[in-house]
Specification:
Layout (H helix, E strand, L loop, with lengths): L1 H13 L2 E4 L5 E4 L3 H18 L6 H15 L10 E5 L6 E4 L3 E5 L9 H16 L2 H11 L4 H8 L7 H10 L11 H17 L6 H11 L15 H24 L7
Parallel strand pairs: 3-5
Antiparallel strand pairs: 1-2, 4-5
Length: 262
């Protein structure tokens, strides 16, 4: 078993890539984009089996409209993004490699308008764009937590422990095994997400209102979405600094006649 483990680690490290995130931060990535896409697809399929999917046509159309506008401004060739609304009081959303977005109905009580919802969806899509899921899986592998993940990643069609995959993809809070995104990744997703929403024609100033709402939600602990994020004051200050850069993008997008979703 030790020889097999050593061989597995050597195999994975041989394919390791040290790259830079879109904001210039160094990243170590052990897994290919194809492996990450399949992990995302397997995890999303499992979630749709285990959680109640909303059948509310109006809500689904609204969320899909916001999400589709965000994904329409992503760089490069993109998959056809699948958007699913889950019936849950959780104030949360997520995006997975391979083109999957999940939004919980509880979020819609806190995100009061399309611009605030776009703040969250833009943030979550930014995690995918910046390879944060790959970083999490890679970190789990390198720290010894992820040997089962690594074994399954080599032959992902025989996935045997979906909980570990989902936790490494940032979904562990729902499944009892948590490997949350780090604060550096969360701050990076904030920066990238507010630019995405502005390019898609959503008002970036509403990102501040959204996080103020988040800070009030769920009492002193706040909703699950905030569990590993920077402090409210820190996040809001960062977003305020970003407004002069992203507001012109929003104005340009608005002038081009992008349709509203609400």
């Amino acid at each position: 078993m030790k020889q097999l483990t050593a061989a597995l680690v050597i195999l994975l490290l041989a394919g390791c890539a040290t790259t830079q995130s879109p904001t210039g931060r160094k990243q170590t990535l052990l897994f290919s984009s194809q492996q990450m896409d399949q992990m995302g697809a397997e995890s999303f399929a499992e979630m749709k089996k285990q959680q109640k999917v909303s059948q509310d046509k109006q809500v689904n159309q609204y969320v899909a409209c916001v999400a589709n506008r965000i994904t329409s401004v992503l760089p490069g060739r993109q998959p056809s993004w699948e958007v699913v609304v889950f019936e849950s009081e959780q104030v949360n959303a997520f995006a997975l490699p391979g083109g999957h977005i999940g939004v919980y109905t509880g979020l819609l009580k806190v995100a009061k308008n399309q611009d605030q919802l776009a703040t969250v969806i833009g943030h979550e899509v930014a995690h995918v764009l910046a390879n944060h899921s790959n970083e999490q899986v890679s970190r789990a592998q390198m720290t010894g937590v992820g040997m089962q993940i690594a074994g399954a990643a080599i032959d992902v069609s025989g996935l045997s422990n979906k909980d570990l995959y989902m936790s490494a993809l940032g979904l562990g809070a729902q499944y009892g095994f948590i490997l949350p995104y780090g604060r550096a990744q969360e701050s990076e997703a904030d920066v990238m997400g507010v630019e995405l929403m502005a390019r898609a024609g959503f008002d970036p100033s509403q990102s501040i209102s959204l996080w103020q709402n988040m800070a009030k939600a769920g009492g002193s602990q706040g909703p699950e979405l905030l569990s590993t994020h920077p402090s409210h004051d820190h996040r809001i200050a960062d977003l305020q600094q970003m407004l002069p850069q992203v507001t012109p993008l929003y104005r340009t997008a608005s002038a081009s006649g992008k349709n509203r979703c609400d």
